[in-house]
Amino acid sequence: MSDFTGKVAVVTGGTRGIGFATARALREAGATVVLTGRDAETAAKRAQEIDAHGVALDVSDSAAVKDVFKAIAKEHGRIDVLVASAGVLEGGLIGMLTDEHVATTLGTNVAGTIACVQAAARAMMRKRSGSIVLLGSIVGERGNAGQAVYAASKAALSAFAKSAAKELGRSGIRVNAVAPGVIQTDLIAEQSDEVLAKIKDDTALRRLGTADEVAKVIAFLAGDDASFVTGQVLGIDGGLVL
């Protein structure tokens, strides 16, 4: 893993799952880490566990995003890495979707991520360097019944990552995305044993992934070892998509 000593990394949605695992990996690699979550108390508690900084942030509030990122850049003097992990996963058949469901999913996963990239990129442009990694999903690449809006939101992030990479590359900023498969986090807690068994059977490695495995790939993309990698959507799915 690259050495992140002296670098400042912001991880949105960093209080649980892949986000927290990534925040921990970056901190262990020497980065000054600021993790965000919707609840201030939870963010502070999780940050304390890894000697990081915790900040309350609802990424769907664009004004709050601007204020928080300005405060981070002012306090720490720079932002070198953004891992945009904040998102919501709500299922729903197409015929049953509500306006609120659509607005919440797209407002958080797409608009919220874009707002964070905008805010981080402004800080990164001052140093003419930086790395941004977006958390997509295998569902955005292949779709899934009952998750049409979620799939659309993650597919949008893949397209956004590629476009942002082309635009921000001239400022020395790299933008990539990861597309995890089925990962052992609380997001799959409601899945039945039968469903999970079927997924394992369809996966080349015959198992589910872990948050730490995804975090290591994100850290690679965020670090100097991937200095010539941008505009990529990297699958982390154990061979589920082959």
Automatic annotation (TrEMBL):
<dbReference type="InterPro" id="IPR057326">
    <property type="entry name" value="KR_dom"/>
</dbReference>
<dbReference type="InterPro" id="IPR020904">
    <property type="entry name" value="Sc_DH/Rdtase_CS"/>
</dbReference>
<dbReference type="Pfam" id="PF13561">
    <property type="entry name" value="adh_short_C2"/>
</dbReference>
<feature type="domain" description="Ketoreductase">
    <location>
        <begin position="7"/>
        <end position="181"/>
    </location>
</feature>
<dbReference type="InterPro" id="IPR002347">
    <property type="entry name" value="SDR_fam"/>
</dbReference>
<comment type="similarity">
    <text>Belongs to the short-chain dehydrogenases/reductases (SDR) family.</text>
</comment>
<protein>
    <submittedName>
        <fullName>3-oxoacyl-ACP reductase</fullName>
    </submittedName>
</protein>
<keyword id="KW-0560">Oxidoreductase</keyword>
<dbReference type="InterPro" id="IPR036291">
    <property type="entry name" value="NAD(P)-bd_dom_sf"/>
</dbReference>
